[in-house]
Structure of O-antigen ligase:
Amino acid sequence: MYPELEVWPVFESRLRVFVSWVTIAAMGSYLVFYVLTAWAYDMGPAILLLMALVALIFGWSSLRTRVDRESWLLIATLFGYFLLQALLLMMHGEGLSEFDLSTRYLGASLVLMFLLMVPVRANTFFFAVGLGGALTGGFALYRWGLGGAARLQSFDNPIHYGNGALALSCLSLAGLAWASRQRYRFLWNVLFLCGLAGGLVASFLSGTRSGWVAIPLIVPVILFAYRDRILDKKWLIPIILAALGLLVAVMVSVDVVRERTIIAGQQVEGYFEEGVNHTSVGLRLDMYKAGLAAFSENPLIGIGPSGIETKVDAMAGSGEVHQNVARYRHLHNQYIDNMARYGLVGLVSYLALLLVPFFLFLKKARHGSPAVRAVGLAGALFLMLHGAVNLTQSMLERNIGVMMFLFVVVFVWGTLKAEERADEGAPDAHSV
């Protein structure tokens, strides 16, 4: 009787499809070009944040039905880190520019809410991860074939390139677990093996030692997640051990890996026995010394970013640490960095930022659904890697490091919840 009223459902349906495809493009571009181009880690999240702001304005009522307690806990962790860091910066009297990185945590929490409203499934996520790892490895081999720099990198320094590549490798490894239950598992396995190998190759050729520490920790996480399947198929145990042994053999055979491992040992010995502090390791150890000295001045809330700069300059001037330490903007250890800047409050907040999502993902890595289980493993492996890397890096003190950390966590959790709803037969189970 009123045909014009039938137009809105059609428009709404097409709008949903459009929003879904834009979401896929934004997430996919981020993961595929994760460490290859400068625009990837900003462009995709920016598009998603813009859509999130619009969606939350018009769809707040529907959001409450899509966000469960676990998701609220993760959102509260991200939002809480933003609030706490902003409060501490105000207490230290820092300028507005110091608040810039903190806003990323607020943006990530909003994007996570949006992804719970517009879910993206595991096939999309893992395809982008595998392709990203394969392209990263191809780029590394291409640059290595051309010769030139001893340590490979893309648009940024070798540290972000190597650790980002290793992250793609870990996510591709989880993709192999997901592919085992898929229809075209042979093709999926080929893609993820290329992603896994590509990420490892790029990491090794970058010479970035910080991520290599995390490699042995992968096995316990996998054993925890899949111990029932491994025990049921005992022939998997020698295969896992052989694969680990092969990986170690490959690492030792790569000149960059072998040389930088030997150099690191020599530099540690030189620092403690002869006081040699001008080396890469020596400078880091002096940074830790300065950071702990700053922490001791105000153990509760630290001395703030400006306070650290003043403290490091003073210690460098007096010869307590090498003068080159004053050239760096952070302390190359996120734990000590947070302690120096924000005291015990900062350390606890950073541990919460790592451990809350880690245990949420680890719990899902034991889920009954194979897809949820694989995505949970992906999140747990990524956070384990990040926690290990930040023993010798301060990844969250630069925009690229914050963006490369936050939005992987957000994308993995959004994908996990999409699979969980699909397993429960929820109305949005058909989402792409």
Remarks:
- The longest helix spans residues 334-364.
- Confidence is low (pLDDT under 50) at residues 1-5.
